[in-house]
Amino acid sequence: MQMRKLGPDKVSALGLGCMGMSHGYGRPDNIESACVLHRALDLGCTLLDTAALYGFGLNESLIGATLRERRNEFILATKGGMFRNAAGQREIDARPEILKRSCEDSLRRLRTDAIDLYYLHRVDPRVPLEESIGALAEFVHAGKIRALGLSEVSAATLRRAHALHPIAAVQSEYSLCTRNPELRILDTCHELGVAFVAFSPLARAFLTGTLRNLTLLPPADIRRKMPRFQQPHFERNLALLEQFERVAHEHSCTPAQLALAWLLARCPEIIAIPGTTCLAHLEENFAVAELNLPPEALVRADSIVNRHTVSGPRYDAVQQREIDTEEFPNAA
Ligand SMILES: NC(=O)c1ccc[n+]([C@@H]2O[C@H](COP(=O)([O-])OP(=O)(O)OC[C@H]3O[C@@H](n4cnc5c(N)ncnc54)[C@H](OP(=O)(O)O)[C@@H]3O)[C@@H](O)[C@H]2O)c1
Questions:
Q1: Which of 62, 72, 19, 64 shows the shortest CA–CA distance to 41?
Q2: What is this structure's pTM?
Q3: What's the CA-to-centroid distance between 16 and ligand 1, angstroms?
Q4: Any ligand 1 atom below 6 A from CB of 264
Q5: Which of 193, 195, 216, 273 has its Cα between 20 and 30 A from that of 161?
Q6: Are the C-beta atoms of residues 253 and 261 closer than 8 Å to each other?
Q7: Helix (H, G, I), strand (E, B) or coil at 149
Q8: Count of helix runs (H) and strand runs (E) in the chain
Q9: With helix as H, strand as E and coil as C, how does 219-241 read?
Q10: Average of pLDDT values for 157-175?
């Protein structure tokens, strides 16, 4: 597995996104998820990604309980600043006292003395950035966090935060389907020496070709609220998928592998964190390390699935308001 720089560390170019094991998609199965976590480390994965939000603490507890004996084998990244409120809804809250409590809770659930990388999950527009970053910097000085990250931020916010305290990584959505990082943040990460961690690199399973029937999604699946997984966008995007799958087939790889190979070839700062709860999918995704796809395959993938061809915005209006990133106007 290729290694890439992330703050003071080097990590495998593919990490493992753990969200789906407790949150968002499908039906969680802790036993299968524990097998996936162990197998990921066995395959050379050295970056695990979680958040206080995922399963409202359950995802961190799962990782802490499953991998406590293997804690020195991986870089552990979690996030704070987005929680479930008293009404049971998702809420952004990055006030210093909330972040401090959240970080202590994460340490306890993760059964660790220090979190390698702690992201501000979302910038809280009601709280000055200096206050949120200042609170996290105190945890760095206390040795409870080793490095800081930001999620879904603009280049301007990254620069401001980086001037307050070194930022090791920015995590934002990036895939063939979602190209916003190409607007500014990738260049800014390159300039500042900040790693870029691409989340939802498989476009939330769309690019794997296995999600074609939306009626099979469980009622609480978060994709149901996402415009690209609603009609008429989904039907239009399926037409792209067919062409994309043909390219993968011609190059003897799977669509998921083609999507990940495209991403890793974009620039050396990128680390991708595909999420899976399934051993076979994990092995398929990590086999991308052995693939040597010709540039022509990546160029064709890029010309089929891009911001001009994908139909629909990635988020609904509520989630769109929660992010701070520069966004391309929607193509359709
Ligand atoms: N910072 C943020 O705000 C933010 C937001 C979203 C996600 N994230 C992080 O990014 C990680 C990855 O993103 P994501 O999980 O949203 O999306 P993703 O990685 O693009 O896709 C995950 C989905 O693809 C499926 N999948 C994975 N590999 C597959 C394969 N080879 N064949 C068929 N299906 C496959 C998974 O189902 P199976 O389980 O069945 O494999 C799951 O439904 C998350 O786990 C989380 O850690 C961060």
A1: 72
A2: 0.97
A3: 9
A4: no
A5: 273
A6: yes
A7: strand
A8: 11, 12
A9: CCCHHHHCHHHCCCHHHHHHHHH
A10: 98
Q: Has residue 210 got a pLDDT over 50?
A: yes
Task: Select from 224, 260, 276, 288 the residue to mutate for testing ligand 1; criterion: most ligand atoms less than 8 Å from CB.
Answer: 276
Q: Check residue 332 and give its pLDDT.
A: 45
* Amino acid at residue number 217: L
Here the tokens at position 285 are 């995704």
Q: For ligand 1, say whether the CB of 197 is within 6 Å of any of its atoms.
A: no
Domains of the chain: 3-203+257-292 (3.20.20.100)
What residues are labeled active site?
A: 54
Quote the tokens at residue 82: 């987005």
Task: Output the CA 206–ligand 1 centroid distance in Å.
Answer: 10
| Cα 211 from Cα 147, distance rounded (Å) | 36
- Taking only the tens place, the pLDDT of each residue in 127-144 is 999 999 999 999 999 999
Pocket test for ligand 1, best of 18, 19, 23 (most atoms within 8 A of CB): 19
Question: For 234-260, b where at least 16 C-beta lie within 10 A, e where not — what string?
Answer: beebeebbeebbebbeebebbbbbbbb
Please report, in angstroms and rounded to a whole number, the separation of the first and last CA atoms in the chain.
38
CA of 275 to the centre of ligand 1 (A): 3
CA–CA gap between residue 311 and residue 290 (Å, rounded) = 32
257 lines ligand 1 (CB under 6 A): no
Each residue's pLDDT tens digit, 259-296: 999 999 999 889 999 999 999 999 999 999 889 999 99
Closest CA relative to residue 171, chosen from 193, 198, 191, 203: 198
